[in-house]
Amino acid sequence: ETGVTQSPTHLIKTRGQQVTLRCSSQSGHNTVSWYQQALGQGPQFIFQYYREEENGRGNFPPRFSGLQFPNYSSELNVNALELDDSALYLCASRLAGDTQYFGPGTRLLVL
Amino acid sequence: AQSVTQLGSHVSVSEGALVLLRCNYSSSVPPYLFWYVQYPNQGLQLLLKYTTGATLVKGINGFEAEFKKSETSFHLTKPSAHMSDAAEYFCAVSDLNGANNLFFGTGTRLTVIP
Q1: Scanning A65, B19, B72, B99, which has its CA 20 to 30 A from the CA of A57?
Q2: Which pLDDT tens digit goes with each residue over A16-35?
Q3: With an 8 Å Cβ cutoff, are B101 and A104 in contact?
């Protein structure tokens, strides 16, 4: 157990809809990163938040957005869902500069 | 830019045999290197990491990895495979002294044959 939790565990949406995924960081961790893991692939970095500010982003379009709250929990929002957005979405929390600890993920299916 | 190549998407070993999972990296800065394991329908669990210092790193569950700068490699080994080792293994490299995001390889699925 890493102390990082994510909700929901599974989600089904249709193309064009919007989705919000949630992550609760390990206590004391001020940095959260989100990753997308497509089937059969390694995780790919989406973005990172440090003290409620985005401070790093991977090669993902603006329809992928996020929030980090004062209690360091966070959200990943995806607008205008596409079929290729179907994946396992992982969040990872840490103290800045330290090892990342991953949650169990949210599996999103877009039909 | 950082990247990782994992040779062999699938590896099968007999129970009790040596496990060797290969990872080569590319990094423009001194790398921080990681191995994570993913069991079915679960997130990633850290096995071990290399930051600085000793190049042979010991992790959990009897795994270890050796950082070889001259070969840009960070291969994962375990002397004797156990059935519970069957999982997906990911090698990753971090930039900026580990302060930022991880770049993962495509993973190696380990099967352990009884």
Answers
A1: B72
A2: 999 999 999 888 888 999 99
A3: no
Other CB atoms within 10 Å distance of the CB of residue B42: 15
Q: Residue A82: pLDDT band by 50, 70, 90 thresholds?
A: very high
Residue environment code for B72-111, b if the CB has 16+ CB neighbours within 10 A, otherwise e: ebbbbebeebeeebbbbbbbbbbbeebbbbbbbbebbbbe
At B69, give phi and psi (nearest 5°).
-65, -40
Per-residue pLDDT, A75: 97
Mean pLDDT of chain B: 91
Residues of chain B with Cβ-Cβ distance to A104 below 8 Å are 42-43
pLDDT over 90 at B18, yes or no: yes
| Residue A3 in contact with partner chain B when CB distance is under 8 A | no
DSSP β-ladder status, B10-14 and B108-113 = parallel
Contact A96 B44 (CB under 8 A): no
DSSP codes joined into one string, A22-78: EEEPPTT--EEEEEEE-TTS--EEEEEEETTEEEEE-S--TTEEEEE-TTS-EEEEE
Could you give the strand order of the β-sheet that contains A19-24, starting from the edge strand earlier in sequence?
A: A5-7, A19-24, A74-78, A64-68
